Amino acid sequence: MPKYLDKEDFIAHQTPEIQQLIRYMRQLMSVAHPQMRERFSFQTIFFVCIDYLCYFGKIHPTKGIEIGFVKGHLLKDEANILEAKNRKMVRGITFRNLQDFRAREEAFLEVLQEAILLNETYPEKTFAKLIFEKRKDG
User: Fold this and answer.
1) Number of H-type helices and E-type strands within the chain
2) pLDDT in tens, 36-49
């Protein structure tokens, strides 16, 4: 796995199709909430709104990019688009390209707004605390 210097280096090392999707999603996320911020950590881009929200997960040149919601197990996901993939907490959605994203953008935005609302409503349920609880129970 390559070591990226920063988020721009991370983006530059993706295929043109994935770069286009990442740029579109970053723009969308930047206006989703006034407190939305990006953080480059663990060799990927995280979106933080009060607490960690989601991140660009697994990237495959032909299968696309997964957006992982760090508290996905707490989301209702009424559109049923989140996948657990044998994970206890994170749930994700994989998009092949920008056209695939646009076809499911409304459902994605519903999940995103639910995740933001969860962070606003339960600020004490931080990602760090949830991880600790899962490990303790685990």
Assistant:
1) 5, 5
2) 999 999 999 999 99
